[in-house]
Amino acid sequence: MSPLTLVCLLLFSLSQSVRAVDPHSLISQYGHTTWRIQDGFVPNPTAITQTSDGYIWIGSSLGLFRFDGVKFTQWTPPDGQSLPGKVVYKLLGSRDGALWIGTADGLGRIKDGQLFNYVTVPRGNGISSITEDDAGAIWITRYRINDGMGPLCRIEGDGFKCFGENDGIKTRYALNLAKDAAGNFWIGSDRLTRWAPGSVTAYFEENLENRSAEGVHGIAVYPDGSVLVGFDGTGPDLGVQYFSEGKWKSYVLPGFNGAEIRTSRMFVDRNRALWIGTESEGIYRIYQGAVDHYAIAKGLTGNSVDSIYEDVEGNLWVSTDKGIDVFRNTPVLTFSSSEGLIGTDAASILALKDGPIWVGTSKALNVLDSGRISAIEEGKGLPGHGVTAMFHDSRGTTWVGIDDELMVRSGGRFKEIENLDGTPFTNAGIVHGITEDVEGNVWAIAQVDADYHLIRIREHRVQQNILVNDFIENIQSIAADRESGIWIFDRRGKMVRYRNGNAESVSLGSPENPLRVRDSFVDTDNSVWVSTTSGLVRWRDGEVITMDSRNGLPDCLPYFYAIKDDGGSLWIYANCGLMKISAADLTKWVNDPQSQVPVRTFGALEGAFPSYSENDGHPKVVKSGDGRLWFAGLNFIQTIDPSRSYINPIPPPVHIEALIADRKNYLPGAGLDLPPLTRDLEIDYTALSFTVPQQVRFRYKLDGHDADWQDAGTRRQAFYSDLPPGDYRFQVIASNNDGVWNETGAAFSFNIAPAWYQTVWSRVLLAVAIVFVGWLLYRLRVRQIGNVLSARFDERLAERTRVAREIHDTFLQTVQGSKLVADHALKDEADHPRMVRAMEQLSTWLGRATEEGRAALHSLRSSTTEKNDLAEAFRRAIDECRGQSSAEISFSVTGDSREMHPVVRDEIYRIGYEAIRNACAHSRAKSIEMTLRYTHDLTLSVSDNGAGIDPSIVDESKEGHFGLRGMRERAERIGSKYTLRSSPDSGTLITLVVPGHVAFRAVDQSRSGRIRSFFSRS
Fold this sequence. Notes:
It contains ten helices and 72 strands.
């Protein structure tokens, strides 16, 4: 047994004298919950018990059901097993935590989730009763015996030891079993047998053959040894019998004739109240001679009762032929027509000093005394139809407004009051309220048509009858000032203090925002409390403060009534329930009206369902001499005892019932392993408090995921998704309806296994792979940068080589020729004419050298990127060529000029420039033709009709010359097709075809990136 269970049982044992349904309340006043067969709950319930883990178990014709306060769950036996019978008749939760199941065919036991069936006795033995004695031994009775053994058996190990005729038990079957304080067993059958080892007494053996009744269906044993039995038949020696003064008698009380009752079950609760379940009349409760009856007409699910059971919290369970009922105490009790209240619209309520409560309704004056209501009705002592206002003065006189008269109740009769001249004071009007001032004057406020009259009475004679319409209208109530005079209240927030003939007005609201007043009272410190539709207003010495939802009160306006109890706590009867504010918290609020006010609210589940009676009358809330508070509702009155705590001290046992992972059910337990990649988790839990299960609250926490406790409210599931692999521990705690927490709660651990790629080794390998890939990318980038730099160096080297070629082939040769001319002139300085011709030739050669040097420089500087126009660059080159050659040169462009990649464009220009220069300088052609075509590709052709090029030079280039070879290299660099055809007869044709995807600038960035990448690789 868990430590929590031991604690719960200890609390139960300490409080069992008070944790039971209150026998002083009527059954109709209990909190009552039903589950009906017709609504699809447990079919045909037959037995109820509670096990030490807190669960309620219900036997039925279809097996065994478990209940947690919210849902019924049919119990499923372990694989390959079954209960000893389908129909469950009896259940017992024993102290060791086991559940004992008696069926039509045998006995079973469930403990720690394991089922054991007692099969040593042949099947077919119907179990009629199961009982645990003080030593923890389990006893059963059988109603069908086919093994020749007795009807009373004790469980020993895995078998039975039965007691029968040889042990003094003469009956052939048994229907019921009870044990008294002396250790005797009382066995009910066709007779009643009191048995103990070595001692046996039989009762009701007379005329057994002539009896039509089946036998004893109920036995009730009181701690003092008193015994009652109930038969399923009626008659002088049947029905309910009571053992008194050595003989049996029919149990007869006012309202209960035991001889006429067909009993099905008997039960004595912890308060020693006797509960009798009948075959067809519902249930009776008998306590200290008072009888209360409750049947289907009042709300019981059925009139045929099968079982009665009291759980650890004191709730009373009843199973009938049509459902299950549970009865519980509620802090707030209601008296309505079900409890005997006569008349609608409870206009006023009065607590007399000698104890009774008077309730004035539209049809009677109801008197509530000792929990029972009697009524004085019209024609039966009430001189009128209904009662409005009532008051009990300091002299013990009771004043009553009846219809349009004001009377006193004296000597059990109603009497008229008198005028000063001794004549009867009649037609007073509808009395709205009565009070007594500090000087002993009785004041009444009455309405005659539209006029309101203030009546002052002394010694039962009217002293004054004052029309008050001039200073107040639409009067709601009247109250005495604690110093002098009286207060008169209207329904719109106006108060008038009337004293010494003067009326002093106080307005609580404003013309723009008037208050609608429901009730008011004057406190002991002479402060005035007014219940309104906008909040609770307090006035004292001209200061007005209001308490409402801004101070933490529930937002449940209007507030109907307010009153203080003997301890100074304030009680507010409001739209959503009854609210209590402690005296200390109330004092704090008075000193700081903006502060928050702790409130305890009693709502419908606690029995409070307030309503407001519009009927004129006062008071509507009173405090009785025993300290109880009473409130008038629409068609009922309600009461609460402020001196009681109403705290359920038993923390609810908490259980984790299921783990559902990706729609697959698992049994929660230590070391539960879930598969990898588990995504969706649902954890179902519960807490077993049956007093008000709707108010059980939960908090849970998943260690390894949640940083703090999660407040689940009343929700009984926790949801998680996409939890990473790892170890987790789920904890849940719960509180009962009164906020008593089970801080231990329940917990279990589970693990989500990692997928292969979520393991540590896979993560290490992944990290290594990432590092390797990073290193590889780094190396590739370094190589790429190296290739780019190499390409740039190659380009520079190629350009230097070309410049070297041009300088060597042109400029240096011309300089060399100039040197030879100069040297030739210096050989004979005396030959002046030859000197002049040499100097002229030298000037010509130096001019050519200048032009060739300028051309070389121009070739370096004239990049096509300046104007992005390849055709214009070629035109400049042709113009230069015309200065060096007499050939006729033509240039044509076809297609639209297109944006080109700068590098490609420069390479094409270098190739074309070299081809034009070679044609001009070496071909000796008469015509040169250059064509540039923009199509899908870029085509450049240069042709001449000159002497052609030596084939050896075409293939290998001339030693020391780089022009032709440079053109081929440039063409290869940009991925283009270069051809050269030459012959002495037809001249030379050079063609360059550059693919469009290389030559032209890409439209999108991806193509541009490919071009850049291409040249980087190049």
